[in-house]
Each structure stands twice: as structure tokens, then as C-alpha cells.
UniProtKB/TrEMBL annotation:
InterPro entries: Anti-sigma-factor_SerPK, Anti-sigma_F, HATPase_C_sf, HATPase_dom. The lineage of its organism: Bacteria, Bacillati, Bacillota, Bacilli, Bacillales. It catalyses: L-seryl-[protein] + ATP = O-phospho-L-seryl-[protein] + ADP + H(+); L-threonyl-[protein] + ATP = O-phospho-L-threonyl-[protein] + ADP + H(+). The keyword RNA-binding does not apply. The gene is spoIIAB. Binds to sigma F and blocks its ability to form an RNA polymerase holoenzyme (E-sigma F). Phosphorylates SpoIIAA on a serine residue. This phosphorylation may enable SpoIIAA to act as an anti-anti-sigma factor that counteracts SpoIIAB and thus releases sigma F from inhibition. One of its GO terms (molecular function) is protein serine/threonine kinase activity. It comes from Sporosarcina psychrophila. This is Anti-sigma F factor. Belongs to the anti-sigma-factor family. Residues 35-140 form the Histidine kinase/HSP90-like ATPase domain. The keyword S-adenosyl-L-methionine does not apply.
Length: 148
């Protein structure tokens, strides 16, 4: 099965749940396990939260765009913002690094995403935004087990 979708929404914290739930609904035809759903939702949540909080500082007017593509049993997803960008991507991806300690941010977002995704890449340009891309492969479901 192949499919794709794009969702854009205003950069407010409440829309992190919208993105998480929309993307979870999108992958349901893959018949993911509870563990796979949990991991996927966590990756989406972390990537979208980073765009809202760090990319746009919750400005409430800029857009975050999430695009997901299903090919066979693999999902490729991008989370894009056109916000401030990341000064040093390598440093930002280090465990415990945060630019928002006053917001009780642990600095583990990228580490968590890396641990649950098959692959993760981050492209960022100061003043032009950030693209977080990840891939996650789901356990194949035998055709005989699929609901019709």
C-alpha cells in the first residue's frame, strides 16, 4: 500500500496533539503494534513540539507542515518550519542540550526521536527554518490476518 498526506497548522502547542493524532490515524492501515504506535506518536510529538517551541517560539501565526508518505510498510515523514533555524544542529542533537531550560525542557527530543526511528536527519538554516525527516518501518502484517 502506498499513500501520502500533508497537514499544515498554526504554531501553537495545542496543535501538537492534532498532528500526533492525525499521523497516527494515517498509519492505521499498516496495522501497527501498540509499541510501534507509541514510538511513532512520540517521534511526531517531539518533532512538532520542537518546530512550535524552538522554530517559532509559539508565535501562534506561523505554520508547521507535516508530510507523511507510506510505501509498503515504511513511513517517511517530514516536519518543516520556516522559523529561526538551529544555530548548531550537531550540538542540538546532543543528549541534554537545550536552549529552553527555563521551560523545563530536558534536551532529549532528538535523542528520543533517534532511538525510535530507523533513520533521522535534520536540516536547518538560520533564519529560514528546519526540516526534521525520519523513517520508521512497521512490522509486516500477513495478508491472511488483514481485516477486509
Amino acid at each position: 500500500m502506498n499513500n501520502e498526506m500533508t497537514l499544515s497548522f498554526v504554531a501553537i502547542e495545542e496543535n501538537e496533539a492534532l498532528a500526533r493524532m492525525a499521523m497516527t490515524c494515517f498509519i492505521t492501515p499498516l496495522d501497527p503494534t501498540i509499541e510501534e504506535i507509541s514510538e511513532f506518536k512520540t517521534i511526531v510529538s517531539e518533532a512538532v513540539t520542537n518546530a512550535i517551541i524552538h522554530g517559532y517560539e509559539c508565535d501562534g501565526k506561523s505554520l508547521v507542515t507535516v508530510r507523511a508518505v507510506i510505501e509498503e510498510n515504511k513511513v517517511t515523514m517530514t516536519v518543516r518550519d520556516e522559523g529561526m533555524g538551529i544555530f548548531d544542529v550537531e550540538q542540538a542533537m546532543e543528549p541534554m542540550f537545550t536552549t529552553r531550560p527555563f521551560m523545563e525542557r530536558s534536551g532529549m527530543g532528538f535523542t528520543i526521536m533517534e532511538s525510535f526511528a530507523d533513520s533521522l536527519s535534520v536540516e536547518s538554516v538560520l533564519g529560514n527554518g528546519t526540516i526534521v525527516k525520519f523513517e520508521k518501518t512497521f512490522s509486516p502484517v500477513p495478508e491472511a490476518s488483514r481485516m477486509r
